[in-house]
Design brief:
It contains 16 helices and 13 strands. By secondary structure, the protein is of the alpha/beta class. The protein has 3 domains: 264 residues, Rossmann fold (3-Layer(aba) Sandwich); 119 residues, Tubulin/FtsZ, C-terminal domain (60s Ribosomal Protein L30, Chain: A, 2-Layer Sandwich), CATH 3.30.1330.20; 48 residues, Orthogonal Bundle (Helix Hairpins), CATH 1.10.287. Helix 5 packs parallel to helix 6. The longest helix is centred in the N-terminal third of the chain and has 24 residues. InterPro entries: Delta_tubulin, Tub_FtsZ_C, Tubulin, Tubulin/FtsZ_GTPase_sf, Tubulin_C, Tubulin_CS, Tubulin_FtsZ_GTPase.
Length: 453
């Protein structure tokens, strides 16, 4: 089944290019450490999901590119064409001459209705080229105006028009120090609207990705492209093909559906975080060896201690004892910043994958009391290595990982709102103060729900 990617705004288009490039490079990598037959099956499965063939034989990304300014889209189309490996399709992009000025309301209330028909027609054309549609993967930022405002609008229209197809939004969480003065407003409006129309929000924090670039990749002058390549690696490690549950010969056909089924058991909980291990520079990788026991021990501790990467893990954090009474468990959580999970998916790739022991992720103490570990934990595997790593593991977690950053961003937005700062920039495009209050109420409920796990 195929996934149609919608790239929105500068951020969405730049990340989208890196994602498709990473997927293509990995699927055509000669270092897959598996048989030729298995490698061909892996390539075919990747191609079905993310690419379609054109007459000249060059694979074409199943994607629609949208921005309100032409510069980034033109650069993205040019880079894909120059790669010589894959390309974007003709007539799959939409751009205008005027951006959204970092104003969510302008993207949502002005650009959205004005350009809805043109954008939805492009998406429909791409959908019609799929033999079978798994769903939509929507890449966007939540700090600016086009990605956030127009992105929220388009996601809602996709839900209206394709209600039975799954929508997953990949969202870039802004730097805590701030890129845009109104980023907290844009963020709460984006999140609250997506919570109503998307099946799941896959969130990457810029601060965390920046630390990975500095500490793990040893990059001195970190560019947006460096950040985007780390993001693309993490997304590829989740979305590239893995075996179906009952087979070591056939790859699963509906990755989005399987992901939602495993990770989103309740519509009130749809914020997903990604961790992967190992992640390092090519120079370091050449001198490194890994064991499944070591990788999974680190990944589990990253999960329970809320670590963003394998460096600086707090090994003092321990799961509360399952035998503790509820009050004791709650205080243990608070004291050690233990991260309670609703659901976890571990994706394992590489040599001797079937010998990997994931029992540590099945501990009932890791999960909320109203889900059994057998329902809360899943593992996907393939012997085919990913992106030159002999062994690698990714974790997609629906847990309390994002409660603190969400609570902080809601608090900052509320402080601005209570003093009426910059509200006029939104109300002049048709928004009302009631719209802000609705967003605050919804997100405060999300924080409370995750906090109660």
């Amino acid at each position: 089944m195929s996934i149609v990617t919608v790239q929105l705004g500068q951020c969405g288009n730049q990340i989208g290019f890196e994602v498709f490039d990473a997927l293509f490079r990995d699927s055509h990598c000669s270092q897959g450490l598996c048989s030729k037959r298995e490698n061909e099956a892996y390539q075919a499965s990747c191609r079905e999901r993310f690419f379609r063939e054109e007459e000249n034989g060059v694979p074409v990304a199943r994607a629609v590119l949208v921005d309100m300014e032409p510069k980034v889209i033109n650069q993205t189309l040019s880079k894909a064409a120059q790669s010589g490996r894959w390309n974007y399709g003709q007539h799959t992009s939409f751009c205008q001459k005027q951006g959204s000025g970092n104003n969510w309301a302008y993207g949502y209330s002005v650009h959205g209705p004005k350009h809805e028909e043109s954008i939805m027609n492009l998406i429909q054309t791409e959908v019609e080229k799929c033999d079978s549609l798994s769903g939509f993967f929507i890449i966007m930022s939540m700090a600016g105006g086009t990605g956030s405002g127009l992105g929220a609008f388009i996601t809602q229209k996709l839900q209206d028009q394709y209600s039975s197809a799954l929508k997953m939004n990949q969202i870039i969480w802004p730097y805590g120090t701030g890129e845009v003065i109104v980023q907290n407003y844009n963020s709460i409006l984006t999140l609250s609207h997506l919570y109503r129309s998307s099946a799941a929000l896959l969130i990457h924090e810029n601060d965390a990705v920046h630390k990975i670039c500095a500490k793990r990749m040893n990059i001195k002058q970190i560019s947006f492209r460096d950040l985007n390549q780390v993001l693309a690696h993490q997304l590829g490690s989740v979305f590239q093909p893995t075996y179906a549950e009952d087979s070591s010969l056939h790859y699963r056909r509906n990755p989005l559906g399987d992901l939602m089924e495993h990770l989103v058991p309740h519509p009130e909980f749809k914020m997903l975080g990604v961790r992967n291990i190992p992640q390092m520079s090519a120079a370091s990788l050449a001198y490194s060896t890994f064991t499944w026991a070591g990788l999974l021990k680190h990944l589990r501790q990253m999960l329970i201690s809320r670590a963003k990467m394998e460096e600086g893990i707090n090994w003092q954090v321990r799961p509360p004892l399952s035998s503790l009474p509820l009050i004791g468990k709650a205080s243990a959580h608070k004291e050690h910043h233990f991260n309670t999970s609703l659901a976890n998916l571990v994706v394992l790739r590489g040599r001797e994958v079937h010998s990997a022991d994931v029992e540590g992720f099945k501990d009932p103490a890791l999960y909320t009391s109203w889900l059994e570990p057998v329902d809360a934990f899943s593992v996907w595997k393939t012997q085919r290595a990913f992106d030159k790593y002999e062994k690698s593991a990714a974790l997609v977690s629906n847990s309390q990982l994002l409660v603190k950053p969400l609570d902080m961003i809601v608090g900052k937005a509320w402080n601005m709102f209570s003093s009426k700062a910059y509200i006029h920039q939104y109300t002049k495009f048709g928004m009302e103060e009631e719209d802000f209050l609705d967003s605050f109420a919804l997100l405060e409920q999300v924080v409370a729900s995750y906090g109660s796990l």
